Amino acid sequence: MAGHRPEPDRDSREWWERIARHEFAVQRCAGCGVDRFPARAFCPACRGEEWRWRAVEPEGRVESWIVARQPFVPGVAVPYVVVMVRLSAVPDGLAYGNWRGGREPRAGERVRGVYREEGDVTLVDWEPAG
Ligand SMILES: [Zn+2]
């Protein structure tokens, strides 16, 4: 499968820990209640720094995708497809992941996230919601 490998940072580390437990979480601002994704330290709406995690279904719609034809990552077969998904839970939230459709995705089609263990990391792939 494809070779997108995450680099957890200060803001996303706990998100990746939750993904490892197969929990897809977004942040909800304690100040204004706006949900956000991906994880960041403060609210883009009110600049508030207090928030909590909220588990949501990993669902959305295909916003865009790329077909990778160059073998950037050793050992990864090409071509592979990386999709950009607009999350149902957070309309401004865009998630990226490998496509598992067996065909190219369609713009706007409904998809769901599926967890995949790759070595010591858990990734979220996307497939048609069927
Ligand atoms: Zn806020």
From TrEMBL:
Pfam families: OB_ChsH2_C, zf-ChsH2. This is Zinc ribbon domain-containing protein. Gene3D superfamilies: 6.10.30.10. Residues 16-51 form the ChsH2 rubredoxin-like zinc ribbon domain. Residues 53-95 form the ChsH2 C-terminal OB-fold domain.
